[in-house]
C-alpha cells in the first residue's frame, strides 16, 4: 500500500462498497486506486469512508 486515507468511520451493519480501478499499467505491475463507500441503514445514502493506492506486482515473469 502506498497511501491509505480514512475519511469516516463505519459501524457493524453498514453495507460496504469497494471499487478498484487500474490507474497505471507497467511491465510486471499495476497501480490500483481503491475507493471504499458505505451505506448506513439509519441515515441511508452513500458516504465515502476511505481510499487507498496499491501497487500489485507479478510474482512470476511470463515470457513467451
From TrEMBL:
Gene3D superfamilies: Hotdog Thioesterase. Residues 1-62 form the HotDog ACOT-type domain. It comes from the Eukaryota. InterPro entries: HOTDOG_ACOT, HotDog_dom_sf, Thioestr_dom. This is HotDog ACOT-type domain-containing protein. It comes from Prototheca wickerhamii.
Amino acid at each position: 500500500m502506498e497511501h491509505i486515507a480514512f475519511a469516516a468511520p463505519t459501524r457493524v451493519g453498514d453495507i460496504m462498497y469497494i471499487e478498484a480501478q487500474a490507474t497505471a499499467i507497467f511491465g510486471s505491475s499495476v497501480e490500483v486506486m481503491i475507493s471504499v463507500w458505505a451505506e448506513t441503514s439509519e441515515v441511508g445514502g452513500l458516504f465515502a469512508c476511505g481510499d487507498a493506492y496499491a501497487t500489485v506486482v507479478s510474482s512470476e515473469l511470463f515470457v513467451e
